[in-house]
Amino acid sequence: MRFMVFYPVLFGAIGRYVLPALEEPAGFQVDLLADYILAALALITPMIYGAVIGFSILDDRDDHILSSIKVTPLSIHQFLSFRIAMVLVFSFAACIFVLWFSNIGGLSWGDKIVVAFLATLSAPMTGFLINALSKNKIEGFAVMKGLGMVVVVPVVAVYFTDATELFFSVIPGFWPAKVISSAVRTDEMMYLNYRLYFSIGLIYALILNLLVYRFFLRRAEF
Whole-angstrom Cα distance, residue 83 to residue 81? Predict the structure, then answer.
């Protein structure tokens, strides 16, 4: 829990204090890169929370807790639903805080809620992917680093505002990144519009979460 509280403060402080302090020495303007910065901060936050839950489930597997659940009235789905709910709540609150405290881009509260909600859906996906692709914590760290590199792709996709951007659309983080960009730049500068980015991203994220969860149940040994 302490770990979960630390990261939003860190990311928010980077956006609010560190980046503005680097503007003059590094020769860039935060306002001109607002959607890039917000996309990076909004996407990495739920990924960190998903990793925490992922390693928590790995601990449960190592301690044979999930195997023990099978002989109790509580189902695996019910047990894991608590973890999913917890990571969604904390990740959503953290995203809201980071977007608000960083004070970049001039997003409205409605935009912050929409972005945080959509970005947060990647948290359980991250946790279950770590567990589906690894059998222990060492393998889990390797998977987590690989998933972390995926954050770079949606941030790069923000640069494109024509049909080329759709090449990046298979990455879940593409859709919340584009919602941010649409809110910052306005729809006139985008290939799709704000509502489409959110709607397609929401449906896509829900489908991916279901597929990843089923993949985890098949691959995990408990």
Answer: 5
